[in-house]
Amino acid sequence: IVDAGIGYGKAGDTTFNGVVSGPYSAPRIGFKGSEDLGGGLKAEFALEQGFSIDTGAPASATRQFHRQAWVGLSGDFGSVGLGRQYAPGYNYSLKFSQAVPGATFNSQAFLTNSIPGASIQPGTDARWDNSITYKLPKMGAFSAEAIYSFQTAESGDDRGQDDKMGVAAAYAAGPVTVGAIYHNSRRAKDNLKEIYLGGTMDFGVAKLSASYQTAKENGVVDAQVAYLGVVVPVGKGKIHADIGRLSDDENADNDSTSLSLAYTYGLSKRTTVYVMANRTTNDDNAARGVLATDDGAASTSLAAGLRHTF
Amino acid sequence: IVDAGIGYGKAGDTTFNGVVSGPYSAPRIGFKGSEDLGGGLKAEFALEQGFSIDTGAPASATRQFHRQAWVGLSGDFGSVGLGRQYAPGYNYSLKFSQAVPGATFNSQAFLTNSIPGASIQPGTDARWDNSITYKLPKMGAFSAEAIYSFQTAESGDDRGQDDKMGVAAAYAAGPVTVGAIYHNSRRAKDNLKEIYLGGTMDFGVAKLSASYQTAKENGVVDAQVAYLGVVVPVGKGKIHADIGRLSDDENADNDSTSLSLAYTYGLSKRTTVYVMANRTTNDDNAARGVLATDDGAASTSLAAGLRHTF
Amino acid sequence: IVDAGIGYGKAGDTTFNGVVSGPYSAPRIGFKGSEDLGGGLKAEFALEQGFSIDTGAPASATRQFHRQAWVGLSGDFGSVGLGRQYAPGYNYSLKFSQAVPGATFNSQAFLTNSIPGASIQPGTDARWDNSITYKLPKMGAFSAEAIYSFQTAESGDDRGQDDKMGVAAAYAAGPVTVGAIYHNSRRAKDNLKEIYLGGTMDFGVAKLSASYQTAKENGVVDAQVAYLGVVVPVGKGKIHADIGRLSDDENADNDSTSLSLAYTYGLSKRTTVYVMANRTTNDDNAARGVLATDDGAASTSLAAGLRHTF
Description:
The structure is a homotrimer. By secondary structure, the first copy, chain A, is mainly beta. Chain A has one domain: Porin (Beta Barrel), CATH 2.40.160.10. The first copy, chain A, is built from two helices and 17 strands. The relative contact order of chain A is 0.17. Chains in contact: A-B, A-C, B-C. Chains A and B meet through strand 1, strand 2 and strand 17 of A and strand 3, strand 4, strand 5, strand 6 and strand 7 of B.
C-alpha cells in the first residue's frame, strides 16, 4: 500500500503545510504465505514493514518488520502464532471504530493514541513483541482471540515486569455486530487496564459505528473515549463522518472533542482518491489534533490524497 | 542492480585499496507499478532502496526507501507525484553529463557533489523529501517538469525555511538535444541558486556531451562546473572519456580539474564488465578525488568490476 | 525462512522465558539470481537479510543485507565473488559440526561464538565485508575456496590493519568426508589464527560428525573446541545429539562443556516442528549457555518451535 496526500493544519500559533504520509492507510509492504500440510493443518507466516512515503523513512528505526513478523499453525483447533503480532485491540477496534478510515484522521484512533501506552486502537502500541496468540476456529457468528506478550522476553519472576495480555470476542446477528476487548499491560507504576465495547449496525443506506472504552493506570491516567461514526455510500464514493470525546478523570483540564469528515472515491478497486478534514477542541492542558497542535487551542486539519494498493 | 569492483586510489600520503560498491551504478532494489484506470488515467508508484554491496549497509541509515518513495497519477494532463522524488536536476543532468557512466567516476557528478547542498547532479542531494512533482505530457520533442519540496513539512511561514523548488526542460532536434535546469534551495544563510545548461550531439560513431552549471549561495560558494565528454562504441564495448573543471569565486584556491576514462563491455544485456580511471588535480585548499583525497594533492583512482541488473 | 519458538532457560539466579527467534534457522529473506552468459560463464548475485521474528528487528542495525551482499562470475575457472560474503569457516564448519541444527543450540556454534572474533562457526563473525572470494570448479570429490577481506577497505599499508584471510578444503571418499579450514584475522593486539579439522561418516542408520579447532591470539585467547555429534533418522523425524568442550589455556577457569539434544519432525518439506534442549557446565569464570547465563553456574535451556521456509 502506498498513500500520500497534501495537508494543511492550524492550531493556535502553529501551522503545518506539506506532504502527509498515509492519511488513509499507513504505507506498508510485506510478505505473507501459507502452506497446506494436509488434514486441515496449515503453516502460515507474515512479515510486514511500514514506511513514510514523504521521506522514505521506515516506520521504526529499530524494527525491520515493524508491523508484523510471525509464524504459526492453523487447523481445526483454531490458530496459534509466535512473534511480533497484532493484539486483539487492533483487530477488533477496527471492526467497530472505523467510520472515518485510517489511523490519522479517525477520531477514536488519534484520541486513544494520545493516551500513553493505550493499545486498543490501530496504532503502533497495538503490535506486541515476543507474543503468542490463539484464535478460535470459525464458529458461525462468534469469533474470539487472545494474546500473551513476553514484552522483553527476559525475567526472573513468573511474569515479566512489562508483560501484556489481551482478549477479545465479537458476535454478529443479522445487520448488527457487537464486540468487547480487554487489555492488561504491566507499566512502570502499575498495570494499565483497558476495556472496550463496540458495535456496528448496517442499514444498507448507511452503516453506524459506536464504541466506548476506558483506560486506567493508577496515578497516571483514568480516561474514557466515546465514539460515534457513520459511512454513507454515494455512487462510487463514500461519505464518512465521526465524532470522538476523550475525558480524563485523573488529570485536570485534559479533555478533547474531535469531529472528522471524509469523502473517498474509488478510481478502481486498488486506487482511491480522498479528502479528509478534522476539527478538535481542547481543554486548557490538552494539545490534541491531527496535523497541528498547540496547548489548549482548537486544531483544524485538511488533507487530500491518493491511495494505491499492490 | 548489483555492482561491485576492486579499486585502488592514491592522493598525496593517502592510499586506498579494497572493494568498491557501485562504481558503475549504485546498487539498488525496489518495487514499481502502475494501474490503468481507464480514459488514459494511470495510478503509479515507486519504492526504491539503495545499499552498499561491499558491506550490505543501506545507503541511508534513516530512510528505508532512500532513493524514491512516491505515488501519483498520470494522464492527458501530464503526471503528478507525491512523496520522496528525484528533482529535475537528477533526471535532466543525466541526459547531458553522463559520458563516463555512474556517479562515482563521472567528472560532473563527483565535482558537483563536492559543493555543499548542490543538487543538479546524480547524487543523494537530488532526491527531495515531501515533494510534489508535475511533468508535462509527451509533446513531440519537448519535455519539461517541475518540483516543490516542503523539506521539513512544517512551517509557520508561507514558505518553509528549507523548502526547495526546481524546473527543467529539454528539446530534441535530430541528433542534437539541449536542456536547461534551475534549482532554488533555502539554506541556512541564504538561498542556494543553481543554473544548468547542457546538450548532446550524436554522430553515430561518437556521442558528445557538454554542460555548464553555476551554484551560488551568498558568502558560502560561487562555483562553476564545466563538463565535456564523449562515448565511442567499439563492437560490444564502449570507450568513455570526460573532463570536468570546477572553479569557485568565493573561496580562494579551491579549484579542481578532473579527467576520467572508462571501458565497458556487455557480456549480455544485463551483465557488464568495466574498468574506470580518474585523475584529479587540486588547488592548495581543494581535496577532490574519487577513491582517495588529500589537501592540495592530485588524486589517482582505478577500478575494475562487474555490474548485473535484475 | 521464518522460525520461532517458546523458550525457557535457567542459570544460577537468572531465568528466561519467552519467545525465541530462530532456534533452528535464523529468520532471513533475500534475493538470489544467476544469468547464463554462454560458454559456461554465469553472472551471479545474492542479497540476504536477517531479522528477529520475536520483535521484527533486523539482525544488524547498520547493515541492510547483513547476511550476504555480493556479485560474481562463475565458469570453467571456478567462481569469483565481490562484496559481503561468507568466509570458508562458515561454509565448511556447517559440513562437519551440524549434528544439532542451527547456531543457537548447536554446541560447536555457541561455544566458538563465545570467543571474541572467532570466525570458524556459523555466526555473524563468519560474514566478511569488502571481500573477494575464489572457489575451485567442481572436481569430483575435492572442493576448496579462499577469501580475502579488506575489512575497512582503506589503508596506508600494503595490508590493512584489520584485513582477514581464509582458506578451506574438503574431500569426500564414500561415506566419509573430511575437511580443514584456516583463518587469519588482524586484531587489535595481534593476529587471531584459527585452525579447524572436521569429518563426517554416514552409516545410513546414523551420521556421525566430529571436529577439533583452535583459536589463538597472543595475550588474549588460546582456546580449543572439540565437538562430537550424531543424527539418527526415525521415520519422518530425526534425533540429534552433540557434545562440545571449550578449553582456554590463556585465561584461568574459563572452560565449558555443552551437551545438546534435539528432535525435529518434518510436517512437509517446507515446515518443521522441533524441540531442543541444552545443558552447559562452566568453570568459575565462564558464563556460557544458550538462553540464560550466570558466572560459573550451569545453564539449562529448552525450546519448542516451528520453522517454515519460503
